[in-house]
Amino acid sequence: MIIGAPQESNFALNKVYQWLFVEQACQLCHIPSKESICTHCYETLDFNIYACPHCAHPSEMGELCKICVSQAFYFDDALAPFLYEGEVKNLVKQIKYSGDFYALPTLCEPLIQRITVKPDAIVYVPSHESRHHQRGFNQSQILAQHISKHLHTPIFDWINRVKSTPTLAQHSKKQRAKLLKGAFQCHSQVPEHVAIVDDILTTGATVNELSKVLRKKGAKRISIWTLARAVAH
Prior knowledge:
Layout (H helix, E strand, L loop, with lengths): L9 H12 L17 H5 L22 H5 L6 E3 L2 E2 L2 H13 L5 H11 L6 E4 L4 H7 L3 H13 L7 E3 L11 H8 L3 E3 L6 E9 L3 H12 L4 E9 L4
Parallel strand pairs: 1-7, 2-7, 3-6, 6-7
Antiparallel strand pairs: 4-5
């Protein structure tokens, strides 16, 4: 079953109110600006210009990266307009942990511009109910709602995170995959082409586990859309 983009939460509506009625300034340099990030600061952000078409990891000429040459994923392609470095990292952390969505539309704009094929539906990475209760929001859901509105593409809202996992930042790719096994449950057949929306693409373990579940429910093509891609150093 597919439904239209759900109504913004009260939390998100309060943020929108702030965007509209509080004097606007660049979130980075704090000078008055009509945009959340002024032109000068925007040009200094770390863009993911040449990226692997499969996992969005930076690659020298935009070819398949070494990871994708040797390893298969359940998803087919990925987009991430920024690298998870410098000010982008700080901005995404403010979205993810502080619920500060002021810069989200600006960060999302280059992602929307890179989308060349609209999917049948958008899927956001769900939070476990305990994490959602703790934060009061799911940043991936709010990002998906923003994209859904611009693309006029419905959100597929029949997926739950049934397993609570610890913060994955300090775990290896292998450990993440083990912790995430069985974390997601889908309650309906899935359209042929879906796009999974998340804030950051790190090792790909989370979206890969979710993609595996969606494959079993009928997805033929799975795209990954995130704001930023972490770089393996």
